[in-house]
Amino acid sequence: MRIPNLGETDLLVPLHSGMFEQPMWQTFMRRLRGVCAAEGVAIMLAGSGERHEVVLREGAGVAVPDKAMREARVYTGDELQAADPGLRAVRVGAADAMVTLAVSGSPAPGAEIASLLSALVPHLRVALQVLSAIERERGRASASAEAFRRMNFGWIALDERCRIVEIDAQAERLLERMGSLRRGPYDRLVPAQPAIDRLLTGLVKAMAQDRRHRPRAINLSQDPWVDILVAPMRVDTLAGGGRAVAAVYLRGDRSSIADRHEQLVDLFGLTPAEARLAWSLAQGLSIAEAADAHGLTTETARYYSKRIYAKTGARGQVDLVRNILTGVLALA
User: Which residue numbers delimit the HTH luxR-type domain (predicted)?
Assistant: First the structure.
C-alpha cells in the first residue's frame, strides 16, 4: 500500500465527487478497499445531535465505532474496544454534520493505514462541507418548490418551434388538469385558443432571434384563472443543451371564481356581493367594468369598493390586488 500524493486522482477525485453517486461514495470506498487490501470499508454520516443517520459499506461488514472520538485522530480497534483489533477509524466534523471513515481487515501495517487516513482528513472535511452545503440548498429548494406548488407556479422551456425541451413537475401537473394549455403532437405546447397559439408561436420565434425581447404576459383563462409569462431563455441550466429559446412561466388557479368568492367572504368578512366585486377588481377590472360585469350601477360599485378597502385594509385597487393575490389566499 502507498499513500497517494495530493495530486493523484485514484482516491481524491471519487472522494470529492462521491456525494453525487447513488449510493454515495461507492467508488471511493471500493478504491480505498483496494488500496488497503481490506476486507471492508465503511462511512457513517451523522447530523448534529443525531445518531447514525446513514451508514455506507463496501465489502465485508464493518462495525462502525460509536465511541467518542477526537476529531481528525486515527484510532485503532483496541482503542475503540472493537472486535477487530485491525480496525482503523477517523472522524471528521464540518458545519452541522460528521463523518466517520473506517477500514477493517487489512493485512497492511496499521501505521500505513493510519497515515493514509490522516492524509485523507482535510479532503474528508472539504467533501463534508460541500455535502452539508448541498443538503442545505436542497432543503431550501424543497421549501421553495413546495411554495411554488402551493401557488401553482411552474415553468416550461421551449425551442423555437414551441416544442417542450424541459418542464418542471408542477407545470406537468398543471397541463394534465387544465383545458387552456396542453402538450400536443411532437411535444409542442398548444394553447386551446387559436389566436393565443399564434401569439405564442410568434413570441417564441421573436425571442429566438432576440434574447433581449421583452417578456409578455398572456391570460389563457378567467375561470379558473390561468396566466403565462413568456420570456427569453436566460437560465442556461434550463436551456436543454442550447435548444431552448424561451421560458413559459405558468400559473393556474386551482379554485373556481365561486370558490374564490367564498374564500374572500371567510378571509375578510365581505358580503357575497362585495366578494364578487373584490375579485373582479383584483383581476384588474376598473370600477365601471366590474359594475357592468355584476349588473351594478357605478355608484353602487364605488360604495361597495369603499367597504371592501376598509375591510381588507387596502388603500386602493393596487393594495387590494396585492392583499388578495399575494396573501395567504394565493396558497388556498
Answer: 267-324
